């Protein structure tokens, strides 16, 4: 951490999809807002959300986050939310048109990479436009990762 820079408690990752970068070739990323209820925000701050199997879809002129899991807030009683409901993403019309075009024409997929809180304490979603990797591409990625790890060990040994 840089000297003189304080750690902001609002600016933290609430959920991350680490498997996405292995399964997909990420071509572009977009920061989007999320339409959430109060209990969903409190649940997100607890850090038990899961976006591993989720994806984004363009339906009815809006982009929706589908199959994401935000557990119920324990103190939410009857005002609680559904854990797997569809959540609306806030994107400009121009970005929405670009995303829709990439999905329709080029066969891309909209994959959420992480949900985090920005400097102002707002929940944001990092959405990727990605293309699915084939099995041989995944093997190549794993080979490169293993070699980088091995190279780091060798460099550390030899000084």
UniProtKB/TrEMBL annotation:
Keywords, alphabetical: Cytoplasm, RNA-binding
Gene Ontology CC terms: cytosol
Region annotation (Disordered) ranges: 138-159
One annotated GO molecular function: RNA binding
Coiled-coil regions, chain positions: none
Subcellular location per the Swiss-Prot or TrEMBL entry: Cytoplasm
UniProt main location, coarse: cytoplasm
UniProt GO BP: trans-translation; trans-translation-dependent protein tagging
InterPro entries linked: SmpB, SsrA-bd_prot, SsrA-bd_prot_CS
Highest rank taxon of the organism: Bacteria
Protein role: Required for rescue of stalled ribosomes mediated by trans-translation. Binds to transfer-messenger RNA (tmRNA), required for stable association of tmRNA with ribosomes. tmRNA and SmpB together mimic tRNA shape, replacing the anticodon stem-loop with SmpB. tmRNA is encoded by the ssrA gene; the 2 termini fold to resemble tRNA(Ala) and it encodes a 'tag peptide', a short internal open reading frame. During trans-translation Ala-aminoacylated tmRNA acts like a tRNA, entering the A-site of stalled ribosomes, displacing the stalled mRNA.
Family: Belongs to the SmpB family.
HAMAP family, A to Z: SmpB (MF_00023)
Listed NCBIfam families: PRK05422.1, smpB
Protein name per its UniProtKB record: SsrA-binding protein
Name of the gene this protein is made from: smpB
């Amino acid at each position: 951490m840089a000297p003189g820079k304080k750690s902001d408690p609002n600016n933290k990752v609430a959920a991350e999809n680490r498997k996405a970068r292995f399964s997909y070739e990420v071509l572009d990323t977009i920061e989007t807002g999320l339409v959430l209820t109060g209990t969903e925000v409190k649940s997100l701050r607890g850090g038990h959300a899961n976006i591993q199997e989720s994806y984004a879809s363009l339906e009815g002129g809006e982009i929706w986050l589908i199959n994401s899991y935000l557990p119920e807030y324990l103190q939410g009683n009857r005002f609680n939310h559904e854990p797997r409901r569809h959540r609306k993403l806030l994107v400009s019309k121009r970005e929405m048109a670009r995303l829709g075009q990439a999905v329709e024409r080029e066969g891309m997929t909209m994959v959420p990479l992480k949900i985090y809180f920005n400097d102002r304490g707002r929940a944001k979603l990092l959405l990727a436009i990605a293309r699915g990797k084939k099995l041989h591409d995944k093997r190549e990625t794993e080979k490169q990762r293993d070699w980088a790890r091995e190279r780091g060990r060798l460099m550390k040994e030899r000084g």
